[in-house]
Amino acid sequence: MRPGVVAVLVSASLLVLGAAPAGGPAHRPLPARMADTGGGTQLITAVAPRTGSTEGRVTWWDRRGGGRWVKAGSAPARFGANGLADGATREQGTNTTPTGLYDLPYAFGIRPAPRGTAYRYRPVRQDSWWCQDNASGAYNRWTEPRPADCRAAEAEHLITYTAQYAHALVVGFNYHRPVRGRGAGIFLHVNGRGATAGCVSVPAEAMRRILRWADPEDRPHIAIGTSGGATAITRY
């Protein structure tokens, strides 16, 4: 067969397979392919292969001059025990991680903030709780002490999660204008023994690196989603 015919057939095969040309859209950094990145110059992406996945990858990015996104670090991640769910319709108690784009209001931890942390860092004390009681005025808020209208069975006693909450960042899911029944207490935190109850978790050293990297003046956000489909991270 003539070489020219081979070249034509190979090119056609690549098109059928959906191969992108060098330098095409598939080769752009993930943040450059997203609908929104929050408007700042720092972004954390948390990507799972599909909604049923409990593991994936967290990557943190910096936006440099000219709008170019550069990877600053990456680590394996864990998600909810029941995978991920669209943040706009997620229901509390489903053990799913909400997809979407969220701000990161503040950091906290049982252990002191890693040296170099610029974020406001709230120390966990013996009477620190996160209220998840839908009937409480403190729903989806840190409380010290736990208010009378927030049942202990519907709240997290933060200091008891010695591994997970050694260091953490609050994820702004359902935080600024809480919708009852949507979910509360979603964080980026240190790994526990397995999948989470709806948070995103990473190894301890990765969490420390993220806290040293994150700068509130750069308005970092976190985008959570899947590789494709209706909850694809590029949609957020």
From TrEMBL:
<dbReference type="InterPro" id="IPR005490">
    <property type="entry name" value="LD_TPept_cat_dom"/>
</dbReference>
<feature type="domain" description="L,D-TPase catalytic">
    <location>
        <begin position="55"/>
        <end position="218"/>
    </location>
</feature>
<protein>
    <submittedName>
        <fullName>L,D-transpeptidase family protein</fullName>
    </submittedName>
</protein>
<dbReference type="Pfam" id="PF03734">
    <property type="entry name" value="YkuD"/>
</dbReference>
<keyword id="KW-0732">Signal</keyword>
<feature type="signal peptide">
    <location>
        <begin position="1"/>
        <end position="22"/>
    </location>
</feature>
